[in-house]
């Protein structure tokens, strides 16, 4: 529903998903796209609200949205999907509140924190006095511009897309090394060689990259966002502007003992958010829905 050509969202897709759910004998349909809450399949439907365009715009770029047919279709598709869902999940309480500020959610609306399982390190690597961050350079919501505006006390690597279309988005100053697009194992390797992860996002409903970095042994320095406070509490450092980021990095870079404590604190906190714990909570939601009295065949709101 969020793509530019969203007028054909249900063209073929609804029929395909309904057929596949029958062929596999599915008991629940779980989607990370709002629109499929409107699927006419006769099965309980779970929607996970990882983010939405309206809360993204409110946080990252209020001028990005204007009244147009696309936005009207988007909001209609999201609301119709939410109306058809039997359960809605958000990855943080912040995201739950953000969604409720723009849409009506009538179904049970729970918070299940995202989880991650990082494969064990294949071989010991030497951790360098450096920082890393992950994100698309062109994406305003990632907030990476701030890295370019500081007098960094240590080298910083950025993993992620450097181009938007045919244009290179930014020319990196000497303290920044763009790594380009890396696969999962390459990112984990780069995190394990770095001392600090910088979470620069302006809009972040949860933040998997800092979680992965903490699991790889990095200290975390994050933008002062409610969602990050909810996930990390006092286990990490926060910044509100370039000066505070520069100060936080210097405090860790120039004090090995403090850096080690920060790495341990983030690592211990990351253990709260494993893939297994997330899966167990979703399984409980599925079991509750499956054991509930069956509804009549649901109507395909998209028809």
Q: Kindly provide the radius of gyration, computed on alpha-carbon positions and rounded to a whole number of angstroms.
A: 21 Å
Give helix % range.
Answer: 25-40%
Q: Describe the main β-sheet briefly.
A: 6 strands, parallel
Instruction: Tell me, rounded to a whole number, the average pLDDT.
Output: 90
What's the arrangement of strands in the largest beta sheet?
A: 9-6-5-10-11-12
Helix count, DSSP H or I runs of 4 or more residues: 11
| Strand fraction | 5-15%
Question: Helix and strand layout, with pairings?
Answer:
Elements lengths: L12 H11 L5 E3 L13 E4 L4 H8 L8 H16 L2 E4 L2 H8 L8 E3 L19 E4 L10 H4 L7 E4 L3 E2 L2 E2 L7 E5 L3 H10 L2 E4 L8 H8 L3 E5 L2 H7 L4 E3 L2 H12 L2 H15 L4 H17 L12
Parallel strand pairs: 1-2, 2-3, 3-4, 5-6, 5-10, 6-9, 10-11, 11-12
Antiparallel strand pairs: 7-8
Helix pairs in contact: 7-10
Write up what this structure looks like:
- This protein has 303 residues and is of the alpha/beta class.
- The chain contains eleven helices and twelve strands.
- The chain has helices at residues 13-23, 53-60, 69-84, 93-100, 145-148, 184-193, 208-215, 226-232, 242-253, 256-270, 275-291; strands at 29-31, 45-48, 87-90, 109-111, 131-134, 156-159, 163-164, 167-168, 176-180, 196-199, 219-223, 237-239.
- It has a six-stranded parallel sheet, sandwiched between helices.
- Helix 4 links the parallel strand 3 and strand 4 (109-111).
- Residues 296-303 have low confidence and may be disordered.
């Amino acid at each position: 529903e969020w793509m530019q050509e969203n007028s054909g969202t249900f063209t073929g897709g609804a029929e395909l998903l309904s057929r596949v759910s029958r062929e596999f004998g599915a008991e629940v349909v779980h989607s990370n796209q709002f629109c499929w809450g409107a699927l006419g399949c006769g099965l309980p439907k779970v929607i996970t609200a990882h983010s939405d365009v309206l809360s993204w715009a409110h946080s990252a770029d209020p001028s990005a949205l204007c009244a147009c047919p696309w936005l009207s279709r988007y909001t209609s598709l999201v609301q119709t999907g939410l109306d058809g869902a039997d359960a809605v999940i958000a990855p943080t309480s912040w995201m739950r509140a953000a969604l409720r500020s723009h849409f009506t959610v009538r179904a049970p609306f729970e918070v299940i924190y995202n989880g991650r399982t990082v494969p064990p390190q294949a071989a010991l690597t030497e951790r360098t006095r450096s920082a890393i961050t992950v994100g698309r350079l062109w994406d305003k919501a990632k907030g990476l511009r701030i890295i370019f505006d500081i007098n960094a006390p240590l080298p910083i690597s950025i993993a992620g897309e450097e181009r938007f279309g045919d244009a290179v988005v930014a020319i990196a100053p000497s303290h920044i090394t763009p790594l380009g697009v890396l696969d999962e194992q390459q990112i984990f390797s780069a995190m394990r060689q770095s001392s600090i992860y910088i979470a620069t996002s302006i809009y972040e409903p949860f933040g998997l990259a800092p979680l992965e970095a903490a699991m790889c042994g990095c200290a975390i320095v994050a933008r002062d966002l409610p969602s990050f406070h909810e996930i990390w509490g006092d286990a990490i450092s926060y910044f509100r502007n370039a000066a505070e980021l520069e100060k936080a990095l210097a405090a860790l870079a120039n004090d090995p003992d403090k850096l080690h404590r920060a790495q341990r604190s983030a690592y211990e906190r990351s253990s709260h958010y494993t893939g297994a714990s997330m899966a167990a909570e979703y399984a409980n939601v599925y079991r509750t829905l499956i054991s509930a009295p069956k509804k009549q065949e649901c109507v395909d709101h998209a028809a």
